[in-house]
Amino acid sequence: MGLTLTVDGPRWRTHLREVADANAGLVPVVKGNGYGLTRGRLARRSEWLGVDTIAVGTYEELPEVATRFPGSLLVLTPWRPFVPDLDPALRDRVIHTIGRVDDLDALLTRQPGARVVLELLTSMQRHGFSARGLWEAADHLRRRTARARLEGLALHLPLAQGSHLGEVRRHIDAAVGAGLDDLDTVWVSHLTATELATLRSSYADFTIRPRVGTSLWLGDRGALAVTATVLDVHELERGDAFGYRARTAPKSGHLLVVSGGTAHGIGLEAPMGESSIKARASTLARGGLDAVGFVRSPFSIDGKQRLFAEPPHMQASMLFLPAGARVPEVGDEIDVRVRYTTTTFDSVIVT
Ligand SMILES: *Cc1c(COP(=O)(O)O)cnc(C)c1O
């Protein structure tokens, strides 16, 4: 019932195992909506994978995963003086990301001996130290009496567009030049297997730890299926009114009420593939239904993507099915195409 994500368990677990085996030092990323699978489930799965560390996005996400995964917890959003206080029971498990000298000092004043990774500003330009800031941080770390446990450097790289190796090398060399004591680990994202292998051979005395979310949890899309339930079906004659806006049917057909709406993250814009963009252009050219203002929905029946009869409601959507199309029955499941990272499912079933 409802908007459901069904996971082919054996196939999914095989994929997870393959990714873990191919990525020494893997750090599964368990953040946001848990890539549609929920953070709690991914935290438990990470323990099953046998990793020693997982990454969450924010401090607010810690409690939920901490009870389900027993190892270290890296927080990806940099620590700031205004983040919520850490549960003292988690002090030894949490690894803080630090990107400013002031934050390093403030954190170590509050929690002497805190575990930290120093993030460097990459071409992403999101967070992190400049090369000069890193020198200053190294200097503070040497001079402070309340020492930090330096767990490594962190680099957040843009999604693959050409090689990132030049950039990664520049950052590691800068960090070595800054004279950081105990530096032996680099945490990275979005490097290809070949790039990781090259880095490992050029920096053999460093441990390279890839943080991976999407290509781990969602890397085998064939293991995942999303369905919605047909909740109601009404016959429409041309000119019949329906919906919140009392719109009228442009021709005869059926109105389908299906589960899945804005609360699930179902938007007016269905994620479109290349072929559906072309198909849409051609129906528009022929004066099809979207020419009268019906918008393509992410729901499809018998392999054909259907049109919203009106914008999605909070938990249900209305679809227009022109006469001639096969009409599903109440209780039938239909396919839905979603962006997993923005969708909340009513249930996730792992077979
Ligand atoms: C989200 C995130 C990742 C994982 O990204 P995916 O594309 O989901 O693999 C890695 N590192 C950082 C800093 C992130 O915020």
The set of bound ligands, ions and cofactors reads: pyridoxal-5'-phosphate
Strand order of the largest sheet: 2-9-8-7-6-5-4-3
Please give the count of helices.
9
- How do the helices and strands follow one another from N- to C-terminus? EHEHEHEEHEHEHEHEHEEEEHEEEEE
Query: What is the CATH homology-level superfamily of the largest domain?
Result: Alanine racemase
Give the integer mean of the pLDDT values.
91
What does this structure look like?
With 351 residues, this protein is of the alpha/beta class. The chain has helices at residues 9-22, 39-49, 62-66, 101-110, 131-143, 165-177, 193-202, 214-217, 274-285, and strands spanning 4-7, 27-28, 53-56, 72-75, 94-98, 115-120, 149-155, 185-189, 207-212, 224-236, 241-242, 247-248, 253-259, 295-301, 304-308, 316-322, 333-336, 347-350. The protein has two domains: 9-217, Alanine racemase (TIM Barrel), CATH 3.20.20.10; 223-350, Lyase, Ornithine Decarboxylase, Chain A, domain 1. Helices cover 26% and strands 27% of the residues. α7 (193-202) links the parallel β8 (185-189) and β9. It is elongated and about 80 Å long. The mean pLDDT is 91. It binds pyridoxal-5'-phosphate. Pyridoxal-5'-phosphate binds at residues 29, 31, 76, 156, 189, 211-215. The site of pyridoxal-5'-phosphate (PLP) has 10 residues, from β9 and α8.
